[in-house]
Amino acid sequence: MVVGGGVGGMQAALDLANSGFKVYLVEETTAIGGRMAQLDKTFPTNDCSMCTISPKLVETGRHLNIQLMMDSEVMKVDGQAGNFKVTVRHKPRYIDISKCTGCSECAQVCPIITPSRFDEGMAQQRAAYKLYPQAVPNAYAIEKRGIPPCRDACPTGQRAQGYIALIREGRYEDAMRVIKEDNPFPGICGRICNHRCEDDCNRNLVDQPLSIANLKRFVTDQVYNQPYIPPDPLPYQFGEKVAIIGAGPCGLTAAKDLRKLGYPITIFEALPVAGGMLRVGVPDYRLPPLIVDREVREIIDLGIDLRLNSPVNNLDDVMKEGFKAVLIAVGAHEGRKLPIPGTDLPEVLINTKFLRDVSLINLGIHPHPSPPPSGGNGGGVQSPIQDPKADIQNRHVLVLGGGNVAIDCARTAVRLGAAKVDMACLESREKMPAHPDEVKEAEEEGITVYTSRSFKRILDKNRHVAGVEAVKVTFMEFDPEGRLNLETEEGSEHVLPCEVVIFAIGQRAGLAFIPESAGVGVTRMSTIAVNPNTFAATRPGVFAAGDVTTGTSYVVEAVASGHKSAASIHRYLRGEELEPTLPPELPVVKLTKEELQERIASGDVRVAPRLRIEPRPVSQRKSSFAEVSPGYTEEEAKAEAARCLACGICSECLCCYYKCGLSAINHNMVETQEEVQVGSIILSPGYEVYNARLSQEYGLGRYPNVLNALQFERILSASGPTMGHVKRPSDSQLPRKIAFLQCVGSRDQNHPYCSAVCCMYATKEAIIAKEHEKEIQPTIFFIDIRAYGKGFDSYYERAKKEYGVRYVRCAISRVVEDPQTKNLWITYIDDAGEIKEEEFDLVVLSVGMVPSASTKELAKNVGIELDAYGFAKTDSLAPLATSRSGMFVCGVFQGPKDIPETVAQASGAAAAASEILSEVRGTMVARKEYPEEKDVREEEPRIGVFVCRCGNNIGGVVNVPGVKDYAASLGNVVYAEENLYTCSQDTQEKIKKAVEEHKLNRVIVASCSPRTHEPLFQETIREAGLNRYLFEMANIRDQCSWVHMHEKEMATSKARDLVRMAVANARLIRPLEELTKGVTKKGLVIGGGLSGMTAALGLAEQGFEVFLVEKEGELGGNLRHLYTTLEGKDVQEYLEYLKSQVTKHPRIQVFTNAVITDFSGYVGNFKTSLMVGPRMFTRELEHGVTVLATGGEELKPKEYLYGADKRILTQLELERNLATDGKKADELKEVVMIQCVGSRNEERPYCSRVCCAEAVKNALTIKSLNPEARVVILYRDMRMYSLLEEHYARARKAGVRFLRYEEERKPEVFIRDGQLRVTVYNPVLRENLSYHPDLLVLSAATIPADTAELASMLKVPRTADGFFLEAHMKLRPVDFASEGIYLCGMAHSPKMIDESLSQASAAVSRACTILAKDQIQVGGVVSVVDPEKCAACLTCVRVCPYNVPVINKEGVAEIEVAMCQGCGICASECPGKAIKLQHFTDEQIMAKCDVLLEVLSDVLKGEAV
Amino acid sequence: MKVSYYPGCALHGTALEYDESTRAVSQMLEVELCELPDWNCCGASSAHATDESLAEKLVSRNLKIAQEQGMDVVIPCAACYSRFKAAGKEDRLSHQPPAEKQDIHILSLLEFMSSAALMDKIKALKKRPLSGLKVVCYYGCLLVRPPKVTGAKNYENPEEMDRLMTLLGAESIPWSYKTDCCGGSLVISRTDIVRRLTQKLYDKALQAGAEAIVVACPLCQSNLDSRQEEISREAGKNYDLPVFYFTELIGLAMGHRDANKWFKRHFVSPAKLLAAKGLV
Question: Can you tell me the ipTM of this complex?
Answer without folding.
Answer: 0.91
